[in-house]
Amino acid sequence: MLTLLARDLKLQFRRGELLASSFVMGVLMLLAFNFSLDLSPDNVAALAPGILWVAVLFSAGLAAGHGFVGERENGCMDAIVASPLDRGSVYLAKFTVNLLLLLLFEAMLLPVFALFFELSVLPVLAPLALVLLLGSIGLAAVGTLFALVTVGGGGRDLTLPILLLPLEVPLLIASVKITRVVMAGGGFPWGDGWVRLLLGFDLLFVVAGWLAFEYVATD
C-alpha cells in the first residue's frame, strides 16, 4: 500500500496539472460568485460557506477520475488487480492520494476565498480546518470508488459528475451548515446533528469503498 501511495503521489506532484487545474477552477468559481452576488457585510457571512463548498465540490469532482486514468490507459490496473496486493489496500492508497491532493487544494484556495470575500479566517482556522478535513474525507471516499466504476467508459468525464453530485448532496448541506456555525465564531459544534451526519457519511463511504473495491476492480 505504501509503495502504491508513494508512486501515485510522486506522479501527481511531478505532473502538477491536476492540482493546478483544480485551483484555477476553484478561483474562477469564487470570482464568478463574487461578481454575480450582491454581497454586503450583512449577508457575506451567511453566503460565503455555501460558496466555498460549491467551489470545493466541483473542483473535487474534476479531480476525482484522474487517479485511475493512467492505470486504465496503460493497462496497469489489470496488473494491480492480479498482484498479491490486498484490494482494500489499493482503494485506501488511492483514497489517501485523493484526500491529500484535495486538502492541499483547499489550503491554496482558502486565502483566495478570504481575500475575495473580505473575511478573517485566522480566528476560526482550527475548527474550519476540521470541517474541511471531514468534508474532504467524504468527497475523496465517494470520488475514489465511483472513479473506478466510470473510468473504463468513454464518457467518464460526463458520467462521473452525474453519479457523484446526487450522492454528495448530504455532505454538501452538512458541511455548509457546520461551516456557517464555525465562521460565526461558535467553535466546532461537536454535538450538532449535522456533525453526526457528516461523520456517518464519511464512515459509510470509506468502509463501503474498502469493501466494494475488490468487486468493482475485477468487474
List the helices and strands and how they pair.
Layout: H1 2-15, H2 17-36, H3 44-64, H4 66-74, H5 76-82, H6 87-116, H7 125-150, H8 156-183, H9 193-217
Polypeptide structure, described:
By secondary structure, this protein is mainly α. It has one domain (2-217). It contains nine helices and no strands. It has helices spanning 2-15, 17-36, 44-64, 66-74, 76-82, 87-116, 125-150, 156-183, 193-217. Helix 3 runs antiparallel to helix 8 and helix 6 (87-116) crosses helix 9. The longest helix has 30 residues, at 87-116. The model has no long low-confidence stretch (mean pLDDT 82).
Question: Can you give me a brief rundown of this structure?
Answer:
The protein is an all-alpha fold and about 220 residues long. The protein is built from 9 helices and no strands.
Features:
82% helix, 9 helices, globular, 219 residues, mainly alpha, 0% strand
**Number of helical stretches of at least 4 residues:** 9
Our count of domains comes out at 1
Roughly how much helix do the residues carry, as a percent range? over 70%
In terms of quaternary structure, the protein is single chain
Largest sheet: none
Give the overall shape.
globular
Overall mean pLDDT: 82
Counting DSSP E segments of at least 2 residues, the number of strands comes to 0
> What letter string, H or E per element, gives the SSE order?
HHHHHHHHH
